[in-house]
Design goal:
Blueprint: H1 7-26, E1 50-61, E2 76-85, E3 90-100, E4 108-120, E5 129-139, E6 144-158, E7 161-175, E8 183-192, E9 198-210, E10 213-214, E11 221-233, E12 236-245, E13 253-263
Antiparallel strand pairs: 1-2, 1-13, 2-3, 3-4, 4-5, 5-6, 6-7, 7-8, 8-9, 9-10, 9-11, 11-12, 12-13
Length: 264
């Protein structure tokens, strides 16, 4: 079944992305978001396509700068996402983020998020494939009430290899850290398409701190994560990996799992 939205919605989604880009230039975020250890590719949902996704992590070893449980050891995080292809090049999505500490039985709602993502030109028309992503997050029980994330999407295919790079800029829009300025983060991946089903990959995530004052090496957060994507067919895919912290402030070992279903 294919859904069709009015063209006005597609126009407003595009304007949201453009407006967010303008905001980046006119203003000056929060730390690395462990709920979103994802590298976004150039490809977006097709027009009328629905994507349902769950992404979860479990922290086996917490940060080195605090004792357990303050270092998040034993923490489980889980995000549920629904995306919709507004046009052939633009999608919109909503998320809810939950977490559960090892000593707790109940899940806590941590945040809700909305994003719009678009791509430019057709694949292969430019030297690199380009896209843009804008997200607004609404944390709960946090000193910040609203945060904005902008990320570029740069992708290049080299034979069976794919390189994805996401430079990320994040800022608190409302809350205690509103005046701290833009934070610089990154997400990147090197993917090898072994065949149509198996895609081993190496992912990189990091947070340098604010643009005007980078944090010290031990306060920055950097992760390296070998992972494997599995394409089952009929729109169903999954991914599994382990992330390793590269600084004292990073959680030292996380297990990652993702399940996604795409359909019309």
């Amino acid at each position: 079944m294919k859904f069709n939205l009015p063209k006005s919605i597609a126009w407003h989604a595009s304007q949201t992305l453009l407006g967010a880009s303008t905001l980046l230039l006119s203003q000056t975020a929060h730390a690395l978001n462990y709920f979103e250890l994802e590298v976004y590719p150039y490809k977006t949902a097709a027009q009328g396509e629905v994507e349902l996704e769950n992404f979860s992590t479990y922290t086996r070893r917490g940060t080195q700068d605090a004792p357990a449980p303050d270092n998040n050891k034993g923490l489980t995080r889980s995000s549920f996402e629904a995306s919709y292809g507004v046009t052939e090049k633009t999608e919109v999505a909503g998320y809810v983020d939950y977490s559960r500490a090892r000593s707790q039985g109940d899940w806590d709602l941590k945040a809700s998020r909305l994003h719009a993502r678009t791509r430019f030109a057709e694949k292969g028309e430019l030297p690199v494939d380009l896209g843009l992503y804008a997200e607004v997050e609404f944390p709960r029980k946090d000193e910040n009430d609203a945060e904005l994330e902008l990320r570029g999407i740069i992708e290049k295919d080299l034979g069976q290899w794919t390189l994805d790079v996401n430079p990320i800029f994040e800022k608190v829009l409302k809350g205690a850290e509103k005046n701290e300025g833009w934070e610089l983060q990154y997400a990147a991946s090197v993917i090898y398409r072994l065949d149509e089903r198996w895609h081993p990959r190496l992912d990189f995530f990091g947070d340098f701190g604010t643009l005007r004052d980078f944090e010290g090496r031990d306060e920055q957060k950097h992760l390296i994560s070998p992972a494997l994507d599995i394409m089952f067919g009929h729109g169903l895919s999954a991914g599994f990996g382990v992330a390793f912290g590269q600084s004292k402030a990073s959680e030292q070992q996380l297990v990652r799992a993702r399940v996604e279903w795409e359909f019309f």
